[in-house]
Amino acid sequence: MKENPEREESELMSALITRQSPGVERGSAVRRGRVRRRFRMEHVLVASGLALLPWLVVLANGLPGTAVASNWRTVWIGLDAAEALGLIATGLLAVRGHRLYALTATAAATLLVVDAWFDTMTAAPGVDQVSAAAMALGAELPLAVVCVVLAARGQAGRA
User: Fold this and answer.
1) Closest CA to 75 of 126, 46, 111
2) For residues 86 and 108, is the Cβ–Cβ distance under 8 A?
3) What is the number of helices (H) and of strands (E) in the chain?
4) Nearest Cα to 148, choosing from 102, 92, 111?
5) Cα distances (Å, whole numbers) of residue 37 to 10, 24, 26, 32, 51
6) CA dihedral 125, 131, 135, 136 (to 10 degrees)
7) What sections of the protein cross the membrane (predicted)?
């Protein structure tokens, strides 16, 4: 008696999607080995984050209140160019229904939040500071929220 060819194909596709060998069940040693490796990497990330905490104290006590940057213009142009590329890539990928748009949306949101933070923190008091706050609240942070919503939808669609 032959098995249903559609069922075999479905099982093979399922195995490919979950990156398992055909016939290997979810609770097997192969699957558990992957979980263990991922769990160890998570420990590395947590440990790295914890190791940065004392470094923050060193920075807070050692960095000067002001600094001069020789490539100031290039840094801001580069950051804004990266934001533009992130937004364009996210929009194009989302329109095409490509699954990677969630990743570009996450990157674009991160860049926009970083830009808003640095704009407001480095602005000179007065008109520059008001302008930076207006840009952050009127453009950068709302766009970041849009990107986060897109990223969350993209991830939910994959689940």
Assistant:
1) 111
2) yes
3) 6, 0
4) 102
5) 28, 18, 16, 9, 21
6) 20
7) 44-63, 75-95, 100-118, 130-152
138 in Cβ contact with 150 (< 8 Å): no
Amino acid identity, residue 117? W
Using DSSP, state whether 11 is helix, strand or coil: helix
- Which H or E run contains 158? helix 141-158
- Helix, strand, coil percent content, the chain, rounded in steps of 5: 80, 0, 20
Residue whose structure tokens are 């990223």: 151
pLDDT digits (tens, 9 = 90+) for 85-129: 999 999 999 999 998 999 999 999 999 999 999 999 999 999 999
CA atoms within 13 A on the CB side of 140: 21
Token digits of residue 55:
């470094």
Locus of tokens 């329109």: 95
Tens of pLDDT along 18-51?
A: 454 455 555 554 555 555 555 688 888 899 999 9
Amino acid residing at 65: G
**Residue 64: what are its φ and ψ, rounded to 5°?**
-70, 160
